[in-house]
Design brief:
3 helices; 5-stranded mixed sheet; single chain
Amino acid sequence: MTKEKTDKLCDQVRECSFGLHKHLRHGHLEKIYVNGLAHRLKKVGVKVEQQFPVPVRDEDGTLLGDMYADLFVEDELIVELKAVRAVTDEHVSQLLGYLRGSGKRYGLLINFGSPKLFIKRYVLD
């Protein structure tokens, strides 16, 4: 996927997130926001998978288990949602782990848990 298409996709996710946050505000469980964002993205024609399995492997390739990213958008973008007061380093590490495990380059970390919506894009190089 080109940078322009990725930028457009990130913008679509941001727009849907802002609309959802404006409607629900903060105070709901994370699952509500995951379902709501997936629903809004599907309504605008964006392909979304929920609870996308990301394998974790040892250095010899042995599968150690799976992690599950909240949303996988258009087979390209991993979106991790939170409903917490503030984003921590652990939340960032979780998203970066999903990117490394999946081999994908782009991710968004979104927090619906505070009065002001938090969205940050991460690029794994």
